[in-house]
Amino acid sequence: MVKLTTDVIERKCSQILTTKSLSKTMKKEELQKLTHLHMNDMFISSIGNLDVCKSLKVLYLQNNNISKMKNLHVACNLTHLYLQHNAIIKMENLESLENLQKLYLGHNNIVVVEGLENLRQLRELHIESQRMPPGESLCFEPRSALTLSMCLRILDISDNKMTSLGDLAGFHELNTLEAGHNLIASMDDLSATVSTLTSLKDLTLRDNPVVRSYRYRENLIANSTSLVNLDGKIVTDTCRSFLRRFKMEKHNRRTRRTTKTPLGDDITNSLNLPPAFKRSISRAIFQHPGPQLSVKITPGSMEINQLQVFPSWKSASGITSVRDNHVTPRPFWSNVSKNKETRLTRSLVNNKAIALPPL
Known about the structure:
The chain starts with a strand and ends with a strand. α4 links the parallel β11 (176-178) and β12. The strands form 6 sheets. A 10-stranded mixed sheet has the order 2-4-5-6-8-10-11-12-13-14, with no helix packed on it. A two-stranded parallel ribbon has the order 1-3. The chain is elongated and about 145 Å long. The chain is 23% helix and 18% strand. By secondary structure, the chain is α/β, with parallel strands linked by helices. This is Leucine-rich repeat-containing protein 67.
């Protein structure tokens, strides 16, 4: 394994110069003016002292065996740092890189995005395809997320076993988001997060369970005011405007349906009558619905006064008939006095008198 030191850098730069001219060699004082350093694919396992490389702006360390981020505080002028395809477990020792604009950390062993509180100039973060323990997924530390929400424009978090994008809510500067090959399944959670990404134009969510949801594309477009490209397909302004109007109309209908209308208003509104007449009918139906009880409570005793209690119709004097366990009123004409005299009529056949039953 190789440790990145000033001597290693000097030898590497000398080899590069030798390929161009056999007479040229790298001197240590020239390392102070070095702005780009290519140390990729060199089996480097750790980063040593880089005091001599104070002018570095771009550092290539991809495809090595680096497990810890350290000794980068000297290169405070760095704008691009390439550390993908290493064995990094934790993001640390980045506080001094206040000028860093692009950070590449894909294909490492990182679980938490952290240590970025001071990187207010960071524009791109590539942290895709992390090798994580079973059951773990990539997440964002709140302080780092707050800083990134104010500056980050391009973010690649694909293939990280993420189940939600809630940590990205409020990333107002985010322009491009790569989040494919994850485990995002909730359409409501995704729509709520996308609605807060006010600058988002390019979104990729391929190979997530959520893409199989009903009207997945329509929901995302309706919840975004800036989306131009979704999973590689163009989103037109006409389509976005139509879906947003459709969403608003659907919301309004749902609101009207759930709004409770008083029963009196519901009945009177169904009648094609003048407003004053409707109010009269409503009062007539619902102002005195029936008997009421007034309860008067005094210390040590309770009195119940019964007001407006009307007798039941079943107790009326004319109710005498019971049939199939139901009380039925007797016809009013049954109170008419009956003439018990027997009427006689003669048969037209044999002139015999026939007695008829009384009425």
